[in-house]
Amino acid sequence: MRLSGVLPVMGRRVVVALGVAGLLMVATSVQAQTAASTQAAAQPEPPDPLKFNGATAIMVLLSVKQGQEATFESAFSEMKSGLAGAAKPEFQAQAKTMTFLKVDAVPPPEQPVLYLMYLDPPVTNLSYNITQILYYGGAFDVATPEARKKVDDLYAKFTASLANQNIWPIVKK
After folding, report:
1. Beta sheet of 162-170, edge-to-edge order
2. What angle is formed at CA 150 by the lines to CA 146 and CA 154, rounded to 5 degrees?
3. Dihedral sign for Cα atoms in the order 76, 80, 81, 86
4. Residue 168 to residue 58: CA distance in whole angstroms
5. Which of 24, 37, 64, 117 has the greatest number of CB atoms lying within 10 Å of its CB?
C-alpha cells in the first residue's frame, strides 16, 4: 500500500518538472526568435548597385536574348520617353543622361546581343534599376489598375528580352 501512495507524488513531481522544462524551452525559443528578428531589422538594406553618386561616368552592359532585340529596344525607348515626359525635373535629367548604344557585332549562336547604356554623368539619388524606375521611382503612374497594366506590360518586355546586366564605372585618365 505504501507504494501506491508514493506513485502519485512521484507522478506529480514528474509532471511539474516536465512542465517547467517545457516552459523554459518555449521561453528560450521566443527569446531567440526575438533576437533574430531584431538583428534582421538592424541590418541595413544592401545598397542599390544601380544608384550612382554622379562623380564618374558609368557604362551598363545589357545582354539581350537573341531574337528579342526589337522588344528590348522598344521597351527601352518607351521607358526613356516616360522619364523624359515625367513632371519632375530629376526624371527628365535621368532620361537625358541615358545614351543607348548597340554593339555592332554579330554574336555567336546562343550568345546575347550586347547593348550599352552610357550615363555621363548619372543622376545622383535615383536608381537606374528598371524595376525601380518603373514601379517605385515615381516617374510612372501605377496608382490605378489601368496605369499599372501599362507598366506591367512594359516590364514584361524587359523580362522577356533582358538576359543580364553588368556595371562598368569609367574613370578618365
Report:
1. 98-102, 113-119, 57-64, 162-170
2. 165
3. positive
4. 6
5. 64
Three cell numbers written together for 153? 506590360
Plot region of 110 (φ>0 → left; ψ -120 to 50 → alpha; else → beta): left
Per-residue model confidence as pLDDT tens digits over 28-64: 454 545 555 555 556 777 888 899 888 889 999 999 9
Residue-wise pLDDT tens digits, 107-160: 998 899 999 999 988 999 899 999 999 999 899 999 999 999 999 999 999 999
Q: 74 near 157, Cβ under 8 Å? A: yes
Grid cell listed for 59: 557604362
- Residue 2: pLDDT over 80: no
Between residues 140 and 13, the one the model is more confident about: 140
Q: Which three cell numbers stand for residue 108?
A: 555567336
Phi and psi, residue 164, nearest 5°: -165, 165
Return the C-alpha cell found at 75. Answer: 521597351
Please tell me whether the peptide bond between 121 and the residue prior to it is cis, using omega within 30 degrees of 0.
yes
Q: How many CA atoms lie within 13 A of 160 on its CB side?
A: 16
At 172, the pLDDT band (50, 70, 90 cuts) reads confident
pLDDT confidence of residue 173: 81
Best CA proximity match to 166, nearest among 128, 123, 133: 128
* Identity at 51, one-letter amino acid code: K
